[in-house]
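@channel anyone free to eyeball this complex?
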Amino acid sequence: MTTEIAVRVEDKLFQNRYQVDVGQAHIKVKPHTKPSPALLALLKACPAHCYELNSNGQVEIAADGCVECGTCRVIAEPGGDIEWSYPRGGYGVLFKFG
Amino acid sequence: MIEERFDAIVVGAGMAGNAAAFTLANRGLKVLQIERGEYAGSKNVQGAILYADMLEKMIPDFREDAPLERHLVEQRFWMMDERAHTGLHYRSDDFNEERPNRYTIIRAQFDRWFSSKVQEAGAIVLCETTVKELVKDAYGRVIGVLTDRDGGEVHADVVVLAEGVNGLLGTKADLRAIPKPENVALAVKEMHFLPRETIESRFNLKGDEGTVIEAAGTISRGMAGMGFIYANKESISVGIGCLVSDFQKTGETPYDLLERFKQHPSVAPLLEGSEVKEYAGHLIPEGGYNAVPKLYGDGWVVVGDAAQLNNFVHREGSNLAMTSGRIAAEAIFQVKSRKEPMTAQNLSIYKDMLDNSFVMKDLKKYKDMPGLLHIQSQNFFLTYPQLVSKAMQNFVRVDGTPKVEKEKVTVKSFVAARSWTGLFGDAIRFARAWR
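replying in thread with the prediction:
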């Protein structure tokens, strides 16, 4: 079920236009051994499915498909789990319709 | 980067930022507007409906060249369960007027047009530039912004923060807090393309007539939220949004929610055979009156989504953004024309003017609504829609059961689900919050 949905999100994101700033992640996950409840919530709540668990059970982000909504920020920034900023000017998602 | 000093710097080129920059420049002030997207609108997401009146106050002849989709002749409200919807449907030929009141729009296109008007009015618009920080002087007064360009500090008498719902600059500068998960909704949206004749026949429209559907019920799976379907010329905007705190609690995924909404038997036939060309996600301020932060200070004002100005009961946001942007600009202009400094005290007229406008009056009217709908989301978004649906089916299905018995079944089902006290309590609480 989960994989099936994950595939569909990628298909959705494929429609979008992005200017990826290679090597300049605008969101960073603070190093951790065991993810907090807030970090775990991002696995499901992120509408672009940017967050995933790695093989060590830590939450990782691949922000290339990020739609810059800020959901992860309101959930996880106050507790210090992530650092959130906008991509450099001109980079990131570029909505054709919006 | 830019040596000269400006009267005002506007951060952001959405509805609020464009309205502010346009009004300031139109009155002869030296304005710099900074937008992080490739063009105005490239970072903005909305359903989207444009309320004409607010724009008309600034650009009376906007209908001549603004990219408008369809003028709305019809509004549908759907209360949904898994297989049905109970609808309230208002349609009037009165809306086929010479100067229509509401239109569907596509934000990336509309914002680009609005930005061209800002430039025509004389503002300098700098795109592809992210503002990293507000610059303050030794006394803590905002005196400009730091951008991500080389030597990127620029100064102005006042900074208009039209930076959108996330309000990063304002929170970094300690002017306001990060929005709380219970005060913002996450909405996801897709753009579905179909030939215009297909859209017109499916929605019962002719020419540029348009329709919108707002839907609530079991589609949000007990979370506080709503779905929407807006007819554009050659596309349909379809989306659904729920409180971030509810997503957190339930572990529902936004895209799964959207898929289920699209597959609902009342929705699927409208979208059948369409080509999806974009998937977007965005936060919507839903905290209402009590979530509005401090609106001004020494050298700054905040407008639009960044100030949480959204009337979620009436689905009005961009018009509040536009109006707050215009009013902030008018306040700044007043201070400027008196040749006074942009202190918090002088800029407080912005708040007075906003309080006297429909923006704050409307938010105040519904100040108890977020508390009610958000805390009781299970009742309002799951139990009642299911009960209403069952009652409607019972009412319309003819099967030889005497009507008195049918009525009894319906009343029983309501009382069993919520009890008499619960029903009356909900009704009274709802009426109070509405008043």
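from a first look: Chain B is about 35% helix and 25% strand.
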